[in-house]
Amino acid sequence: MGGRHMGHMGAVATGQTPQAAARAPRLRRALGGAVVPLLAAAGLAAFWLFPNDLGLMTRIAATALYVLSLDLVLGFGGIATLGQAAMFGSGAYAAGIAAVHLVNDPLVLLAVGGLAGGLVALVTGALILHARGLTLLMLTIAVVQIVQEVVNKARDLTGGSDGLSGIEPSPLFGLFRFDMFGRTSYLFALAVLLVGFLVARRIVRSPFGLACRGVKEDPLRVAALGGSPRRYLVTLYAVAGVFAGVAGALTAVTSGIVGLDSVSFSWSAEALVMLVLGGAGRLVGAVIGTVAFMTIHHVMAAIDPFHWMLFIGLFLMGTVLFLPGGIASLADRFIKGNRT
Fold first, then answer.
1. CA 179/CA 192 separation, integer angstroms
2. What is the DSSP string of 106-125?
3. pLDDT in tens, 188-221
């Protein structure tokens, strides 16, 4: 009786009926559980509706996984970074080099890319994550510049400024060939994105993920409870590096080429823009922001190839001003609207 009375009083205090207050958590759980089926349904619908744009949609799926890796470190760990392209590019080049010289199984190449991205993140994270704020941001930019210069100088392996080409993956499971129409590439990229999303969601909901959120909110309290904030952040950074490396390898496998732009500062900055558009700290925001950014980019660049960045800027400003939590925050507004 006392609990129901207190719940009733809380609902009255917030201007809600008790029924609406009880309905809101159920609605939030229902929306959260429907995310993956909705993404899968939307991806398959796009496959049938836009058969001439499979190349673009494949890039969107691979990029969404890359932005998802940034959301892990920034949205859930609070690590300010503009260096995520270092892990993405390392994974792309590692997979590309392996495909040209060693093995061409697409799943093995994804594993190679994830391992490369994770190792780069682990090594660099252990070196730079003692810093905070602007200093950390500058260090992450420096990491990108160093990796890009190493890749550029190793021309015999990477092709330097000409890029690495000749990446020809074998048929997936020995059955599905990567054809010129991009059907296998798109479905493969969509499947990898969905699996990556499920794994990322499991991570952020695990005790480790909750500890990382605690470090983001109050590192001193985590330390007082016996945890090591730096160890949590370095581990999270390495895990996110695996995601970024897999995204880079996926791009290499599906496009057949890797260029220096995959390990550039601008690619890191674009990932941050996509995450801000979608909404950091939500996971699904990474996917929504990527789809929105790359779709607008594609459409506006076709309409006006000289001023398309103006439209991107206006869209970003409008989102930040009217949806500070990103496009994904529209779900919160929907839930609040159903509370009354």
1. 18
2. HHHHHHHHHHHHHHHHHHHH
3. 999 999 999 999 999 999 999 999 999 999 888 8
